[in-house]
Write the structure tokens for this entry.
Amino acid sequence: MDTEITDVTNDIVLMRVVGTKANHGNVTCISLDDGLVFIDTGKDARATSKFRSKMEARFKKKPIFVLLTHTHWDHIFGMEVFSDVPIISSDAGVEAIRKELDGELSKEGRQKVIKQIRESLKEEGRTPSEAHKQFFDDLTNVTITVPSIGVKGEIEFGSEGRRYKYWSIGGHSDCSSVVFCEKEKVLITGDNLVAEHAANSPCMLAGFKPEAIEILESFEQMDVDTFIPGHGPVVGPEYVVKSTEWFSKMFSFLSDLKSKGVPSEKAVSDPALPEFFENATPRDYEHILEFWYNAV
Ligand SMILES: [Zn+2]
């Protein structure tokens, strides 16, 4: 597993896990006057731990808190790396983790998930890949805790002249939040924006909700030069515009076909469907379209 470190600005650094088909959420570090703030904890505690050490050595500062853009697994599995500092999410995020710790994230729940994945692989005549095995190990050993602080509305942090704002925005998940770095004109979007979709598991794109288009439109209105997406490399405003236009076009196209009574299997292979907006087409593209057809 490889990681890629990007200096977004002198004080904002992004770490990505690359070269794997498994979903790994981005982890960002902001160096403030009084310490480091990490945004999300990624899916792989080893990669996140290395990133933390690297940032501590580089900035000669310690973490002061962690902000979660949302509480999906690929963004919280590195949580244990920050057991010494407060972890902050939206209040909906606190509720979501609390609930999951009694269900899918409980010890039994996690074993059940492993069993389900093993069974579905078997049904497809596949054997677990190295990435699957790693995930099963991680799922068995991961330590998830309820965030120490749940934010209702918004919070601000930083210093005079370098203000940062964290607020709950919804869309991708009820607990989704964003971080705006006003001076640097950087927005850390969580999974309401993703770049290089083909590198991710198709289920992520399939989960894109038509309501999230409004959120993308609101990103366009902001004074932002650089977007750090939930997955994929940093992108500029033009990517957000392209992405918004494409999702709007695709969803209205599908909804049109649906209202005309075109069945899903025909709709997903309609030759007039808007072509995917990135160079590489996501895996299981037709399945993704089927999901969307059902959602519109
Ligand atoms: Zn994600």
Summary: Residues 237-259 form the longest helix (23 residues). The mean pLDDT is 94. Residues 118 and 124 are 10 Å apart (CA to CA).
